[in-house]
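Hello forum,

I keep getting stuck at the same step: I have a sequence, I want structure tokens, and every attempt I make locally crashes halfway through. Rather than fight my setup again tonight, could one of you with a working pipeline run this one for me? It's a single chain of 345 residues.
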Amino acid sequence: MAADKLTGAPLIDVRELSKDFRTFKRREGVWGSIQNLFVRDYMTVNAVDRVSFEVKPGEMVGYIGPNGAGKSTSIKMLTGILMPSSGEARVNGFVPYKQRRQYVKTIGVVFGQRTQLWWDIAVVESFKLLRRIYEVSERDFQERMERFNQILGIQDYLFTPVRKLSLGERMRCDLAAALLHNPPLLFLDEPTIGLDVVAKDQIRKFLRAINREFQTTVLLTTHDLDDIEELCRRIMIIDHGRLLYDGPLDLLKQKLLRTKQIKFAVKDSAQLAGVHAFTRDGLELEQVDQLTYRIRFDRVKVSTADLIRQILNSVEVRDLLIEDEPIEEVVKRIYAGAALQEVAL
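Reply #2:
Ran it on my machine without issues. Output:
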């Protein structure tokens, strides 16, 4: 949903949210283990450090960062599992860790490696139990199950015990279960981890559909940056517990992904001499296969249109494709400490 169409009060309002864990340095070896029983050197780890942000109704926001950055800790505070050390969070009008019983009825949560379905009973029985827990009417239940089946294709294994489902099948069922009560807000923690390309595509299609049809707000944490590019216009990047960037994905790519790529295939080997003329300053030529090449260039210094004209004037081209660098390159630079001053934070 376009950001300029998002109105109203924030659905998620986070102010200076922090979470500290007290741990101790473990000594090595047998003698060290014995010492740990009696003498411990404690230290405080700032898992989340004064994070602030808002999410409007209907947004799909990507929340990304390396392992240990604070993503899952943030989600656990926002879902009421953990109590923050300081700061405030108000979600759906509730303080999650203070009003958890009422609050959890208004959200959906999917953790990629865990399930909310009962392991040894048929999937449909889990759905029926959840229908009663969430007090969903029979009519709404049937309508939603039909819609879930149309997009996710879960009908074929509704009567299969959860333990016999593949990871992709279980994930589809977990998504349906999380949305059975039509919550306005869905938290997703690595929803496509371990899935094949087809399963990932089905889940992304489903998420786009529920966002479009029901204006479901989605906060998505993932290491799969294809999920982010497919689903989210806005991203937040966290590292060492601090929010490094919060803004449009396109702006981040525009400011930090200055390199563009043109991939082209020449008609025949007679064109190869003309290709090597593109090894001048500012251009990086890479041979992909016998007749296919990729030119990388700084789009600030070199006009894409001009370079394409030069290629077409120099060699006979069978195919040509303009590519951006993968978003992974942006994230790598940020994690490595690349400056973000060019981007309006």
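The chain has twelve helices and 13 strands. If your local run keeps crashing, start a new thread with the error log.
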